[in-house]
Write a structure and sequence with these properties.
kinase, 9-stranded mixed beta sheet, magnesium ion binding, Ribokinase-like, single chain, EC 2.7.1.50
């Protein structure tokens, strides 16, 4: 008990992050991922490496039977089509009815009016967490499309903090911004997760994957989604830090990131997780 108190004084966020990760490994929650074709493989492997159980179930015909059994839902609009949107809304509605968390990833939301309208309609279904890059969060906050570079951000994560706070207040969701520093806000509090390396941005769907990990952490403790989201950001970034020590480029970093996530131990998490308050 004395050792735990000492650890909390030294790195309270490290303690929280390890609690989420170790609980995830013990409980192996079922995470339903309605996501884009690009991200399915790495997202599933990220969840498996962390200890969760992924299910890429997106047919609206399966939602009534399957979704009631999940612990959280992830909705990612990266390769959105009109055929998929009803299933996304149905899964979010089931999660809400059953008091289970769901997470929205508004990938490339500024690319088209169709995509923006779909995301705004999904936000009306009260996601527990919204995770995007700086440009995506600014677009959602303004509810209008502008200059875009697909799923890539034209803004630093710090540029979107005020937009994220506004979006959190209007939506009731925790809002998370990916970037060189990953920010999380509930509209009042703001924290930044500093783990991670720039080359992670060269791995396709790395952002999608961290959203999946957020969904898994939030499944462990839905009542503390703010803390779960920040911890997921830092744990994923820490796996990238360690993976980069062995990687020669984006392809090998992808492999070593997943391996490092699987192998993270208590001492490493307590020592190296870095989350600071900005509010």
């Amino acid at each position: 008990m004395a050792d735990q108190k000492q650890q909390e004084v030294i790195n309270p966020w490290g303690v929280k992050s390890w609690t989420y990760l170790s609980s995830l490994r013990q409980q192996s929650p079922l995470i339903q991922c309605i996501t884009n074709f690009v991200s399915m493989d790495i997202m599933a492997n990220t969840l498996l490496a962390a200890g969760a159980s992924p299910a890429m179930v997106h047919s609206i015909l399966e939602i009534p039977d399957f979704t009631p059994h999940i612990q959280s839902v992830l909705i990612n609009v990266g390769t959105l089509t009109p055929d998929w949107l009803p299933a996304m809304k149905a899964a979010a509605s089931v999660a809400n009815q059953l008091g289970k968390p769901w997470v929205l990833d508004p990938a490339a939301v500024g690319a088209s009016s169709f995509r923006l309208k779909a995301c705004l309609e999904l936000i009306e279904l009260k996601p527990t967490v919204i995770r995007g890059n700086g440009s995506e969060i600014i677009t959602l906050s303004m509810a209008s499309i502008g200059s875009t570079k697909g799923a890539d951000s034209l803004h630093e994560s710090s540029d979107a903090i005020e937009s994220a706070k506004s979006l959190a207040k209007s939506s009731g969701s925790i809002v998370a911004i990916s970037g060189s520093v990953d920010f999380v806000t509930d509209g009042e509090r703001v924290v930044g997760a500093h783990n991670g390396v720039p080359m992670m941005q060269k791995i396709t769907a790395s952002g999608c994957s961290v959203t999946a990990l957020i969904a898994a952490f939030v499944a462990i403790d839905p009542t503390h989604a703010f803390e779960a989201t920040a911890s997921a950001f830092s744990v994923f970034g820490l796996a990238g830090d360690i993976g980069m020590e062995l990687a020669k480029g984006p392809a090998s970093l992808r492999m070593h990131l997943i391996d490092s996530l699987h192998r993270l131990d208590q001492d490493t998490v307590l020592d190296r997780v870095t989350i600071t308050s900005f509010s």
